[in-house]
Amino acid sequence: MRRPSVILAAFALQSASACFTDSPQLSTGGGEASTSDADTSGSDASGGTTTTPSTTADASSSSSSGGETSGVAPTCGDGVVDPGEACDDGNQSDADACLSGCVAASCGDGFVWVGQEACDLGEGNDAKSQGGCRLDCALPACGDGAIYAGALGPSIALGQGKGISSVDLNHESPRAVAIDGAGRAYVVTDWFNANLGTSRVVIERYDPDGSAVGGPIDAYSGPLSTSRPVIAAAPDGRFIVAWQVAQNSDDIRYSTFNAEGVGGPIFSASESTSGSQRDPAVAINAQGDALIAFRASGGLDPGKWLIRTRRVPAAGLPPPDFVAGDSFVGDVTSPAIDLRDDGAFALAYSDDTGRINVRTYDGPGALTSAFEVDDGATSINNSNPWVGVAALSDTVVIAATGADAQVHLFTFDGSGKLVTSQAASTEALGAFPRIDLVADASDNVLVAWAGCGPPGLDQNCKGDPASLYLRWFYADGEPFGPPLLAYNLVHWSVMGIGVATNAIGDLALVAQDDNNPFLAFAPAACP
Q1: 3-state secondary structure (DSSP) of residue 122
Q2: What would the pLDDT profile of 430-488 be if each residue is shown by its tens digit?
Q3: Neighbours of 182 (CB within 10 A)
Q4: Which residues contact 323 (CB under 8 A, 6 or more apart)?
Q5: Which of 39, 42, 91, 135 has a 20 to 30 Å separation from 85 between CA atoms?
Q6: Three-class SS state of 123
Q7: Looking at the domain that runs over 156-522, which CATH code has it been given?
């Protein structure tokens, strides 16, 4: 497998501040009194001569005329706040709270206020550059809202246990990888032992340096056929795993794990015992509250499929699952979901025609919007259904194929109104059957996609080489850079991909080329 090299340009900022103090001396002049003796001759009573002293004062110090006194004119730096001055601390320093022009210091004035600001480039302050100075006069740092994309490291082979006949990522949903706040990756795969006829849903954990954390963890091991496992991890390392089992015409099971990797009981995601439940998706927030979504059939109209969801709180029993998506006559795709810290979530899915539907819910679980993604967007069909969704602070972003055969990002406001639509890809291909979308804590989004074939050819990439791309976008929609060709997948055959990021932008990527699933890291390049 050929892997492209990823070049990251990193800039280190050195901030030097000069501080000087000019203490003007106020000079005062004083007059000296001089006394001279003069002889005055006169005659005394006896007719002699007498001498009487006389004193003359030297008035060279100051003079007064008409009762008015002339003094020193008010100036900036005299320590007195005069009219027209915001401050006056009696010095000429530009490194303290009062600038030399008697103007109060502030972020953006171009002077570093020592002890209060780390840097100040004036109009050169910005929110996105890799170096320089931020708008709040802080030095660039991970988590400040900028993107610090790191280079992809070497690939790590997954599923290397003994006695394994096959190891597969989920091919129907991208959530086969998760990442916690420390940058540790969690990958779930489906293992099968043909000799024993047993299936296993296995979690592997890796640190950013590629070292394995403990051994593989079984979420399930037994005779039931398993498939389509998904995973989500909280910042503190707690995680949830869900998968599909071939029982009761297919069922969705799940289990939660603490930060040490110890799992709890296995539950069914649906309380229904009739019909089929398939294709799970999971999400988890910073509090450890999780959400499972899946498609379900049965009930009063077995011909219709529904999207059902179930909340899994960090503490206490989960409430019953509920219908979150409308039914269609025919098939619906596996859902994509994203859960915010306040409990609000967004759900996206499509039908046989590729029409994409979006539903948003608030924290208590009330429906807040329901709309379709127009503008030529499609998920191709229910055989290649992947749609990416990110529930941001005030908007919802959908990643899907546009009418121009490019991967697009569609941004909607809280009412479901389309705000922007822009291409993420720069190369039209015959098909983009695999798309994933995630966001960091600053609402910067990362989209991943795999596609194949020449433009204009409607195909599903069966047996064709494919290209796997990544691209970051700032929260305001500005691209961080061009698409990054992460991998060339020689024998892809529409296998699974997935991407995960945490609050500061550490990245974990999974993909499968032929029968070889792998993981790669791109830790954030923090200044």
Answers
A1: helix
A2: 777 789 999 999 999 999 998 887 765 555 676 678 899 999 999 999 999 999 999 99
A3: 12
A4: 306, 307, 308
A5: 135
A6: helix
A7: 2.120.10.10
